[in-house]
């Protein structure tokens, strides 16, 4: 009887949370924003599963393949500062729709790229389009859900992981059956549909339903830089740099690592790669809820512990069942995004929130973008396995840095 009551309490709690996220007309906006985030994240992670096809057609080495992925992340980093400034001053609708539209057009250019140079240039624009979405997404959700930001970000990030789980295997299957161009081009029509949905659903020049005001307050880059010199925010910048660099590096090369070093087929590797993000669908909402309840100092180390162990033992396992278990262990790190982004949203002053988030995320992502090309260079020299021990050490360093953050 007690078990039944506890189960009923959990169901009632889930219903209350769902009602809180849906209340006041915000639920529709949350769905549209989350769907856009899912498609963009899935698009970004299609690249790793198509790298063997791109390498064959454009004669890329592991180092140059890593550079291609680095270009996506570099473009993703560069645009986040202007995205944050525009979100603060002009509202999020134009920023979000422009970002998705640029990605759709750039993918068309990638599909028809006549040379490696054209491929790299178009891929850079894919990254720039991707960069316009994250900060504006956080600022609009922060205004929509001031008391539930962790949960709201957890939901959108979970949708991002659904996109990363579903789209790469679909792209791999289409590429194997038709061509790599079809494996990338199929995502363009859904992206255009999201552009239309964002434009119709989000109010112009505002971050919350029914508020048509535009904040032109003191949110300049100079003020933001002065604020971001606070030790807590500097520590968060380092944590983000290490985390983003580790995630970008792992996601760029895991499918190739599984095929080249572990002997898996490309289909099995893409499914295992999808499993990595599938766990994030559950991990991110749980991590966001944990942050809301117990704070970053206790929630983030718990989320990262599995990745430290997983990276350390990955080079040592060979059987498929062991690789599945290790993938699940590593995937728990995906929950950290809901924690760190929520913490930054709570910590940065509201009047410079978009600009501040843009500066921190852009700086961290720009530095982290060096990870894939460095990892590729190391792998080209025969140290593919050893590089994962370095990733384990980096995640361990993030855990230690978390303990330096204020308790409140």
From TrEMBL:
Source organism superkingdom: Archaea
Keywords: Cell membrane, Membrane, Transmembrane, Transmembrane helix
GO terms assigned for molecular function: transmembrane transporter activity
PROSITE patterns membership: MFS (PS50850)
Transmembrane domains' residue ranges: 21-40, 60-82, 94-113, 119-140, 152-178, 184-202, 233-256, 268-287, 299-317, 323-344, 356-375, 387-405
One GO cellular component term: plasma membrane
Mode of membrane association: Multi-pass membrane protein
Organism: Halalkalicoccus jeotgali (strain DSM 18796 / CECT 7217 / JCM 14584 / KCTC 4019 / B3)
One Pfam family linked to the record: MFS_1
PANTHER family: CHLORAMPHENICOL EFFLUX PUMP RV0191, PURINE EFFLUX PUMP PBUE
Subcellular location: Cell membrane
Entries under InterPro entries matching the protein: MFS, MFS_dom, MFS_Efflux_Transporters, MFS_trans_sf
Every Major facilitator superfamily (MFS) profile domain range: 29-408
Chief location: membrane
Official protein name in the record: Major facilitator superfamily MFS_1
């Amino acid at each position: 009887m007690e078990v039944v009551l506890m189960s009923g309490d959990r169901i009632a709690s889930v219903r209350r949370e769902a009602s809180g996220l849906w209340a006041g007309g915000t639920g529709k906006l949350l769905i549209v924003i989350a769907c856009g985030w899912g498609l963009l994240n899935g698009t970004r992670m299609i690249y790793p599963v198509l790298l063997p096809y791109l390498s064959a057609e454009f004669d890329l080495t592991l180092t140059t393949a890593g550079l291609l992925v680095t270009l996506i992340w570099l473009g993703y980093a560069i645009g986040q500062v202007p995205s944050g400034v525009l979100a603060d001053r002009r509202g999020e609708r134009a920023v979000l729709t422009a970002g998705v539209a640029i990605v759709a057009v750039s993918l068309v250019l990638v599909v028809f790229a006549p040379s490696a140079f054209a491929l790299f240039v178009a891929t850079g624009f894919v990254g720039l389009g991707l960069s316009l979405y994250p900060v504006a997404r956080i600022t609009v959700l922060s205004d929509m859900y001031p008391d539930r930001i962790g949960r709201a970000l957890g939901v959108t990030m979970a949708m991002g992981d659904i996109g990363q789980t579903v789209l790469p295997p679909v792209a791999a299957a289409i590429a194997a059956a038709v061509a790599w161009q079809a494996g990338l081009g199929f995502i363009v029509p859904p992206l255009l549909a999201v552009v239309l949905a964002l434009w119709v659903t989000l109010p112009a020049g505002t971050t919350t339903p029914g508020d048509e005001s535009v904040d032109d307050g003191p949110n300049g880059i100079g003020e933001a830089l002065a604020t971001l010199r606070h030790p807590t925010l500097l520590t968060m910048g380092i944590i983000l740099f290490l985390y983003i660099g580790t995630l970008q590096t792992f996601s760029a090369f895991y499918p190739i690592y599984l095929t080249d070093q572990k002997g898996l087929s490309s289909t099995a590797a893409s499914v295992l790669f999808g499993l990595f993000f599938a766990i994030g669908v559950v991990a991110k909402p749980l991590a966001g809820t944990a942050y809301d309840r117990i704070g970053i100092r206790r929630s983030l180390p718990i989320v990262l512990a599995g990745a430290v162990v997983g990276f350390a033992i990955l080079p040592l396992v060979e059987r498929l069942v062991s690789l599945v278990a290790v993938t699940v262990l590593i995937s728990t790190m995906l929950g950290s995004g809901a924690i760190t982004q929520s913490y930054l949203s709570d910590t940065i002053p509201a009047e410079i929130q978009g600009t501040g988030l843009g500066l921190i995320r852009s700086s961290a992502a720009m530095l982290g973008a060096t990870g894939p090309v460095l990892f590729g260079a190391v792998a080209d020299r025969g140290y593919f396995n050893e590089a994962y021990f370095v990733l384990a050490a980096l995640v361990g360093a993030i855990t230690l840095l978390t303990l330096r953050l204020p308790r409140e």
